Amino acid sequence: MAARRETLVTLAGLVLVGTLAGSTAPVAAAPRQTSKQPVATGYLGAVATVDPEATRAGVEVLRRGGNAVDAAVAAAAVLGVTEPYSAGIGGGGFFVYYDARTGRVHTIDGRETAPQRMREDSFIDPATGQPMKFEDAVSSGLSVGVPGTPLTWDRALRRWGTTSLAQALRPAIRIAERGFVVDETFRQQTAENEKRFREFTSTRELFLPGGEPPRVGSVFRNPDLAATYREIARHGVGVLYRGELGRDIVRTVQHPPVAPGVTRKVAPGLLETSDLARYTAPLREPTHVTYRGLDVYGMAPPSSGGSTVGEALNILERYDLSAMSRTQALHHYLEASRLAFADRNRWVGDPDFVKVPLQELLSQGFAAERACLIRPDRALQSPIAPGEPDGRYAGCPAAGTGAREPYEGRSTTHLTVADRWGNVVAYALTIEQTGGSGIVVPGRGFLLNNELTDFNFVPLQAGVPDPNLPGPGKRPRSSMSPTIVLRDGRPLLAVGSPGGATIITTVLQILVSRLDLGMSLPEAVAAPRASQRNGASTEAEPAFETGGLTALGHRFQQREEIGAATGIEFLTGHRMTAVAEPTRRGGGSAMVVAPKR
Ligand code: GLU
C-alpha cells in the first residue's frame, strides 16, 4: 500500500474560518482546543493520561456507561494517534485490572516477543565479535519484536469489557482523521528523532511533512492509521497476527524502507509471519506484597516492575519512614531501590525461559537479609552484588561488587482509569524508545517498536548468568510498573509511569511519598524525583534537594525530568481524584465523569 501524506492545516486558519462564518462554535471538522488540567476530583469514573484527547475519549466512554476496561482501551488507542512515539499497535505493554465484582487483580502480559530466529548472539556483530552499536540496533529491523498491544486490547475487552474493539477504536479513528493540534512536546520529540526519521522513507513522509518536524499549533492528521484501525475494527486483530497487515509488518522488518543516500547499514530483522501467528498475550498472576497493612499489586515477570517495587517496599517496611527526617527517609528510599535493582538485574527475565525466584525475591526473609546492609550514616557504594534469594536467610552477607547498570530507553506512556462500579485499570504501553525503531510500516501510519533492545546484548557481568539475554520467542525484561494498591480489599490508589528503568523508582517514590511522607497523591506525583538503580550516582531532577544526602555519601547526577506519572486515588464517599503530571513532558490530563454528585 502506498504511503499517503497527512495534511497540515494551521489552527489559526481554522479559527479564522469560524470567525468569518460568524460562529463561535468550533468548525465541524476542526480539532478541539487541547486545554488540560493535571488534577480532577469527582464521581462516577476518572481517567488520567498524558494527553487531553485520550483522557477525554476515556471519560466519554465512561459517561456513556462503558466500564474501566472499555475506557482504557479507547484511551490507549487515542494515545496511538496523539502519542505515536510512545504508544501504539506497533508495540506492547502490561495491563493491570482490579475487578470490583470479585475483588481480584488480573494482568495481561502484552510484551513484545523475539522472533524464533533470534539467538543469544543476535546483537553481536559477527565481523568484530562485539555488540552492535546501541543506536544502530535501536533503528533497525533487528530490534522489532512481535507487537502485543492489539492482542492486549482484544483480550481485555473480551474478558472484562462491555464494548467491542470496533467501538473502542472509534474515537481514535475520528481523531486520526480530523487531526490533533501539535504541541511543543510533540514537536520536540519529532525534532529529537529527526535524523533517524529521515533515514526511512515511510517515517519521513509521515512525521516530517514538508521535510520538517510539524509546527506547534498545526494540525497533524494520520489517515493511514485511521484506515489501519478501521481494518482492525472491521476484521479483528487477526489482520495483524495472521493477515495482510502482519505481512506488511514482516516485509518492513525484513526490508526496512531505507531512504536513498543513507550510508549506515540498517540491520534487517528476523521476524516472520509465523512469529506473529504464534504470539500470545497471557494472563499472569500479579505480584503481591503487603505494605503497612495495604495490598500492593504489580506486574510480574517478564516485567521487573512488580518484583522490584515489591522488594523495595518489603525492605522499607522495616523502617518507620514517617518518623524519620526527610533526609533519612529519602536515604532509605534510595538504598532500598539500590538493593532491589541489584537483585532485579541478576534474577529477573522472561519466566518462560529462566527460573525467576519471584516468591523469594518478595519474601520477608530476603527483605530482612537485604535491609541489614543499609546503614543510617553512610550510603552503599554501587554497583553492589545481588543477594541470594534462596530461602536461607541468616546473618548479613557483605555487599560485594555487582554488575554495571544495563541501558534502557525511556518512552512508555501510562494511563489510569476507574469506573463507577469500582473497577480500576493501570495500563502501561510502549514502543520502547521515543519513536521506537524509527520505522513506520509504509501506508499503515504507525511506528514499529524497538523493544528487543531491552535485552542485554552480552551478559552484564562476566561469569554470572544473565536472565535477560536474547532468545527465540523470548520476551525482553521490562521495567513497566502499573500498580494498584488496595486497602481492606478496596482500591486506595493506582499509579504508573513511563521512563525505562526509572519507572520503578518513580512508582516507588510516589508510593513512599503518599503512604509514608504525608503527601497527597497530586503532591507525590509533582514532587522532585531521584532515581537510584545500583549505579555509582543517583539521577536527580534539579529541584530535588540533595544536601543532607550528599553528606551521607550519595552522589548525584542531574537529569532534567524523570518519569511522567498518572494515577487515581479513591477517597471516601465514592469520590476519586485523577492525577497527571503538572509540568513534566508538557503536563498530562486528568478528568472525572462528574465533578459534583
Ligand atoms: N522498554 C521499557 C520497558 O519495558 C519501557 C520504555 C520506556 O519507558 O522507556 O521497561
Describe this structure in words.
Helix content is 32%, strand content 17%. It has helices at residues 11-20, 52-63, 68-82, 134-138, 149-160, 165-178, 184-198, 201-207, 223-235, 238-241, 244-254, 273-277, 305-316, 326-347, 358-361, 364-371, 502-515, 521-526, 547-551; strands at residues 8-10, 39-49, 92-99, 104-110, 124-125, 130-131, 180-181, 218-220, 283-284, 287-291, 294-298, 413-419, 424-430, 483-487, 490-496, 530-531, 538-540, 556-558, 566-570, 576-580, 589-594. The chain starts with 7 loop residues before the first strand and ends with a strand. A hairpin with a 2-residue loop joins strand 14 (483-487) and strand 15 (490-496). It is built from 19 helices and 21 strands. Strands 2, 3, 4, 9, 10, 11, 12, 13, 14, 15, 19, 20 and 21 form a 13-stranded antiparallel sheet that branches. The chain has a three-stranded antiparallel sheet with strand order 1-8-7. Helix 2 packs antiparallel against helix 6 (165-178), helix 3 (68-82) runs parallel beside helix 6 (165-178) and helix 13 crosses helix 14. The protein has 597 residues and is of the alpha+beta class. It is globular. The chain has two domains: 1-27, no CATH class; 31-301 and 411-529 and 561-597, Gamma-glutamyltranspeptidase, small (S) subunit (Glutamine Phosphoribosylpyrophosphate, subunit 1, domain 1). The longest helix is centred in the middle third of the chain and has 22 residues, at 326-347. The structure holds glutamic acid (GLU). Glutamic acid binds next to loops.
